[in-house]
């Protein structure tokens, strides 16, 4: 019963993300959807991942709300907002993907091997992270470092060809003539 | 709570995210669609880990990689939005006719 509350709640709030009039409200509906999924992960014995998802998304959605107030039109939802393009195609793609994935979920015979309740999944994950999968874990860390550097480079005001708000015009390729001796 | 039910919920989240990623004009709303798609994939992955793989720890490891992908997408997305807004004063995809700065 609790599972269905979280499942239906996360799907409905995900739907409301694209139906609300305010982008800030949309960010908080998305956070509600993530909290529902995080709670389902906790119920599935992945307590660590569920809590990390909720905490990570809480921070991320607050940043998203701040970005929207800074840059976007209609941040506080004072006017009706319906900014979409290719709407019919998008609805069709969503319906087709839902039907296709549901057919796969309901028809494929997955092996029935639930987690043994005796094992501590968080401890197992810790041993996996710092043992056999150490290289994968480190690779994810390096990818995040590269992202931080890339994000700073992208968001920096000074680009390669001047400041960003002047349009960063590339210099022309005219070759200056050398003075003859 | 059966595996089928979990996978159908994950499919619904993925489908709503796909709708948002294709249809939204605003950059941030588009990113929300992408986040929802990853959210659905994460739920499906953990459901398969918990009910079909016998709790193999590598399943959770893969979920952590998914979360790193989410963080990378958001960080680069915000940086791109900042840059595009500075250069073009644009906050919707329709205003970008070309990507060159």
TrEMBL record, chain A:
One annotated GO molecular function: quinone binding
Bilayer disposition of the protein: Multi-pass membrane protein
EC class: translocase
Parts of the chain that traverse the membrane: 26-46, 52-73, 89-108, 135-155
Catalyzed chemical reaction(s): a quinone + NADH + 5 H(+)(in) = a quinol + NAD(+) + 4 H(+)(out)
InterPro entries referenced in this protein's UniProt entry, alphabetically: NADH_UbQ/plastoQ_OxRdtase_su6 (IPR001457), Nuo/plastoQ_OxRdtase_6_NuoJ (IPR042106)
EC numbers, comma separated: 7.1.1.-
Main localization (coarse): membrane
Keywords tagged on the record: Cell membrane, Membrane, NAD, Quinone, Transmembrane, Transmembrane helix
Name of this protein: NADH-quinone oxidoreductase subunit J
Provenance organism: Actinomarinicola tropica
UniProtKB/TrEMBL annotation, chain B:
Topology with respect to the bilayer: Multi-pass membrane protein
E.C. no: 7.1.1.-
Keyword rRNA processing included in the entry's annotation: no
The reaction(s) this protein catalyses: a quinone + NADH + 5 H(+)(in) = a quinol + NAD(+) + 4 H(+)(out)
Any one GO CC term of the record: plasma membrane
Name of one Pfam family that matches: Oxidored_q2
Alphabetical keyword list: Cell membrane, Membrane, NAD, Oxidoreductase, Quinone, Translocase, Transmembrane, Transmembrane helix, Transport
Signal sequence segment: none
Entry's transmembrane regions: 30-51, 63-85
Cellular compartment(s): Cell membrane; Membrane
A single BP term in Gene Ontology: ATP synthesis coupled electron transport
Main location: membrane
Gene Ontology molecular function, alphabetical: NADH dehydrogenase (quinone) (non-electrogenic) activity; quinone binding
Protein family membership: Belongs to the complex I subunit 4L family.
Quaternary structure and partners: NDH-1 is composed of 14 different subunits. Subunits NuoA, H, J, K, L, M, N constitute the membrane sector of the complex.
Described function: NDH-1 shuttles electrons from NADH, via FMN and iron-sulfur (Fe-S) centers, to quinones in the respiratory chain. The immediate electron acceptor for the enzyme in this species is believed to be a menaquinone. Couples the redox reaction to proton translocation (for every two electrons transferred, four hydrogen ions are translocated across the cytoplasmic membrane), and thus conserves the redox energy in a proton gradient.
Official protein name in the record: NADH-quinone oxidoreductase subunit K
């Amino acid at each position: 019963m609790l599972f269905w509350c979280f499942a239906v709640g996360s799907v409905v709030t995900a739907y409301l993300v694209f139906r609300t009039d305010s982008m800030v409200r949309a960010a908080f509906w998305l956070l509600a959807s993530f909290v529902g999924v995080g709670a389902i992960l906790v119920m599935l014995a992945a307590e660590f991942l569920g809590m990390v998802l909720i905490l990570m998304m809480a921070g991320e959605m607050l940043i998203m709300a701040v970005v929207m107030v800074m840059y976007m039109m209609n941040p506080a939802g004072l006017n009706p907002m319906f900014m979409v393009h290719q709407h019919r195609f998008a609805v069709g793609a969503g319906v087709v993907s839902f039907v296709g994935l549901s057919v796969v979920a309901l028809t494929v015979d997955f092996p029935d091997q639930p987690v043994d309740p005796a094992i501590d999944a968080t401890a197992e994950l810790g041993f996996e992270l710092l043992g056999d999968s150490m290289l994968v874990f480190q690779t994810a860390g390096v990818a995040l470092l590269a992202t931080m550097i890339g994000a700073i480079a992208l968001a920096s005001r000074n680009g390669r060809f001047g400041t960003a708000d002047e349009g960063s015009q590339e210099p022309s390729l005219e070759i200056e003539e050398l003075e003859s001796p | 709570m059966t595996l089928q039910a979990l996978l159908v919920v994950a499919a619904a989240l993925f489908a709503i995210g796909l709708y948002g990623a294709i249809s939204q004009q605003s950059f941030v709303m588009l990113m929300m669609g992408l986040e929802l798609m990853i959210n659905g994939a994460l739920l499906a992955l953990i459901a398969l880990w918990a009910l079909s793989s016998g709790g193999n720890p590598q399943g959770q490891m893969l979920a952590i990689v998914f979360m790193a992908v989410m963080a990378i997408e958001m960080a680069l997305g915000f940086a791109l939005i900042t840059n595009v807004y500075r250069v073009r004063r644009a906050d919707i995809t329709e205003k970008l006719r070309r990507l060159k700065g």
